[in-house]
């Protein structure tokens, strides 16, 4: 079986074995990136970049998505003109069992505690 042709719109992602704990923790240490991951986890599906209403500039939003993608937390693919984002929960759970669930639970508890969501 041959692999599909790589287009200029394909985005680089780390292979599962290239994902590092420190990169994941760094990516999730930013409140905006954690918010993106929480929304993706809650949706349980891919969401377009335009779905997210973040209180930052478009270039900063793009930066946050790039950090999440390059750390292996999300996968981004183009569908037509939309860039779709999906949480790499299976990869993260295989590499770091329980980490994602624990972080999402802790983030939800913090949001309730400080009244941010």
UniProtKB/TrEMBL annotation:
Keywords: DNA-binding, Transcription, Transcription regulation. InterPro entries: ArsR-like_HTH (IPR011991), HTH_ArsR_DNA-bd_dom (IPR001845), HTH_MetalResp_TranReg (IPR051081), WH-like_DNA-bd_sf (IPR036388), WH_DNA-bd_sf (IPR036390). SMART domains: HTH_ARSR (SM00418). One of its GO terms (molecular function) is DNA-binding transcription factor activity. PROSITE patterns: HTH_ARSR_2 (PS50987). Pfam families: HTH_20. Residues 13-107 form the HTH arsR-type domain. This is ArsR family transcriptional regulator. It comes from Streptomyces griseorubiginosus. The lineage of its organism: Bacteria, Bacillati, Actinomycetota, Actinomycetes, Kitasatosporales.
């Amino acid at each position: 079986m041959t692999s599909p042709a790589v287009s200029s719109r394909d985005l680089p992602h780390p292979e599962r074995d290239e994902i590092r704990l420190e990169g994941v923790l760094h990516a999730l240490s930013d409140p905006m990136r954690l918010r993106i991951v929480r929304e993706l986890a809650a949706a349980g599906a891919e969401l377009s970049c335009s779905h997210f209403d973040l209180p930052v500039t478009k270039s900063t939003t793009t930066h946050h998505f790039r950090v999440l993608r390059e750390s292996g937390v999300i996968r981004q693919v183009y569908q037509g003109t939309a860039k779709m984002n999906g949480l790499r929960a299976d990869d993260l759970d295989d590499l770091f069992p329980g980490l994602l669930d624990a972080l999402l639970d802790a983030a939800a508890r913090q949001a309730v505690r400080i009244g941010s969501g």
